[in-house]
Here is the input.
Amino acid sequence: ISVAAKLCLLASVALLISLENHDVDGAPRRTCYLPKTPENRAAFRTIRNKYEDLRFDGVEPWQNCSEKYLQLPKMDNLTKWEKMGAMELQLNLFIPVLQNQSETTFAKATSEVLEFLLPYREDLKVCMQHRPSHHQESGYLQGFKDGLQQFNTSNTEQSPKCLEAAVGMNILSLLQEIKGISLHHHHQPRHHSNN
Here is the structure.
């Protein structure tokens, strides 16, 4: 094989590698990275405890929120990519509620939580761009979406305060799901990335 042919072959390989790491519009594709845990984990627990105290101490209007609507749908049966998509949906619900929190007495803890959740959501969006094009959504994911919509609707219909309380009381559960997704992401072998 001639030198010119070798150079042409190398150029073709380099082009293929470049295309694999760029989006359709030609922009470089960012690396998928998810932080394992936030530095301010205590802030999540503070918010959960505060809302539990408000509700169980009989403080109005928190005492009027029905307990049966406080449970978030589970991600147990979702695949790796479905869990990432489900978490993005959950963050899209939780973040605006936290940003408009009415309880100023623990605004500092809320600010610390948002300092982690906002960039985490952006990191999650980047990772979702790496999802295999042939990935098929399962019925479990649709069930999660329906459950999350029910969680939102049922609490909002009672009162915006009830949705705020529901988000606050589930913030620690959200963190546990984030830790699970991140750990699975960091320990998942590359050849299983289409799960």
Observations:
- DSSP finds seven helices and no strands in the chain.
- Confidence is low (pLDDT under 50) at residues 10-25, 189-195.
- The chain has two domains: 1-30, 32-192.
- The radius of gyration is 21 Å.
